[in-house]
């Protein structure tokens, strides 16, 4: 068989504006059911039913996912830690690597991967953004609070979005394979929107 093109690489993250806070105490600063469902659908769905997606994450994010939910099902889970001495295929769903570069190389060696999603946390996002030429899409769930409520956070994105531009809802739908994208979703004291960013040409 002929070799396929490399999978596209997307960062997916939920962040509270304007600080772009994403974490607190090794976990998420909120519990947003619909956001979690969106994350699950977008990172799991493939157009080609013979393929699956890969999710790449830092060791701390891996440990933050409750045991019974990891590895994230129906996806190849790639975990990055400096303490792994070499790439290790743990089983068909889990691969351990010790660098950002190797995380991409190891996925590109696999057959039948449709998309790559970088799922966190802050250190991993920031490294991929400094290696920006590899990232095709930013899927940012932009969260706001009703009355600028004080939300405890200790982990923040340092994204410079200057060279990126927000894309249309139409493009967001086509990239995510979602037929409808709900807007201004309200859950608890939060209001949020799904957004797609791509590099300025
Ligand atoms: P990360 O998940 O980014 O993991 C950091 C670890 O990854 C490091 O300690 C190291 O592991 C490994 N690592 C990072 N960079 C490299 C590299 N270049 N080469 C090799 N290994 C590397 O942790 P953060 O603390 O930055 O973020 C976690 C926080 O983010 C949590 O609060 C989590 O809940 C939140 N989060 C929020 C999301 C959201 O969408 N709101 C999404 C995902 C996470 P080691 O120490 O083992 O060497
Ligand atoms: C779902 C949160 C999220 N949203 C977006 N838009 N992008 C992301 N990268 C993430 C994320 C993440 C990592 C993460 C997943 C952290 C976590 O910390 C406690 C838990 C999960 C998680 C929890 C689940 O319960 C049921 O299925 C789950 C899937 C992931």
Give the structure's gist in a few sentences.
The chain contains five helices and twelve strands.
Chain-wise SSE layout:
Layout: E1 8-16, E2 21-23, H1 33-44, E3 52-58, H2 59-64, E4 75-80, E5 88-91, E6 94-97, H3 100-109, E7 113-118, H4 122-130, E8 137-145, E9 155-156, E10 164-166, H5 169-176, E11 185-187, E12 190-199
Parallel strand pairs: 1-7, 1-8, 3-4, 3-7, 4-6
Antiparallel strand pairs: 2-9, 5-6, 8-12, 10-12, 11-12
The structure holds NADPH dihydro-nicotinamide-adenine-dinucleotide phosphate (NDP) and ligand 14Q.
What does this structure look like?
- The chain has 201 residues and is an alpha/beta fold.
- The protein has one domain (30-199): 3-Layer(aba) Sandwich (Dihydrofolate Reductase, subunit A), CATH 3.40.430.10.
- It contains five helices and twelve strands.
- Strands 1, 3, 4, 5, 6, 7, 8, 10, 11 and 12 form a ten-stranded mixed sheet that branches.
- The protein is globular and about 55 Å long.
- The mean pLDDT is 96.
- Residues 13-14, 22-23, 26-28, 57-61, 64, 80-83, 98-100, 119-124, 127, 155 line the site of NADPH dihydro-nicotinamide-adenine-dinucleotide phosphate.
Bound molecules: NADPH dihydro-nicotinamide-adenine-dinucleotide phosphate, ligand 14Q
Radius of gyration: 17 Å
Helix count, per DSSP? 5
Shape-level CATH architecture: 3-Layer(aba) Sandwich
Note poorly predicted spans.
none
CATH fold-level assignment: Dihydrofolate Reductase, subunit A
Q: Kindly state the mean pLDDT as a whole number?
A: 96
Would you identify the CATH H-level superfamily? Dihydrofolate Reductase, subunit A
The span between the termini is: 34 Å
Give the number of domains: 1
For the secondary structure, the number of strands is 12
Question: What portion of residues belong to β-strands?
Answer: 25-35%
SSE pattern: EEHEHEEEHEHEEEHEE
């Amino acid at each position: 068989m002929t070799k396929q093109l490399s999978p596209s690489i997307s960062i997916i993250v939920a962040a509270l504006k304007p600080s772009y806070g994403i974490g607190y105490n090794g976990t998420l600063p909120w519990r947003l059911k619909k956001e979690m469902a969106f994350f699950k659908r977008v990172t799991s769905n493939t157009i080609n039913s013979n393929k699956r997606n890969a999710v790449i994450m830092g060791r701390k994010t891996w440990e933050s996912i409750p045991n019974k939910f990891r590895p994230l099902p129906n996806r190849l889970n790639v975990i990055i830690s400096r303490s792994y001495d070499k790439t290790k295929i743990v089983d068909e769903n889990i691969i351990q690597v010790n660098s950002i570069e190797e995380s991409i190389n190891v996925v590109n060696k696999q057959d039948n991967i449709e998309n790559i999603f970088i799922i966190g946390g802050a250190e991993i996002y920031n490294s991929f953004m400094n290696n920006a030429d590899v990232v095709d899409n930013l899927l940012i769930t932009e969260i706001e609070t009703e009355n600028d409520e004080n939300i405890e956070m200790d982990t923040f994105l340092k994204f410079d979005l200057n060279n990126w531009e927000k894309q249309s809802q139409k493009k967001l739908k086509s990239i995510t394979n979602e037929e409808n994208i709900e807007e201004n979703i309200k859950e608890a004291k939060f209001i949020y929107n799904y957004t797609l960013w791509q590099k300025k040409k």
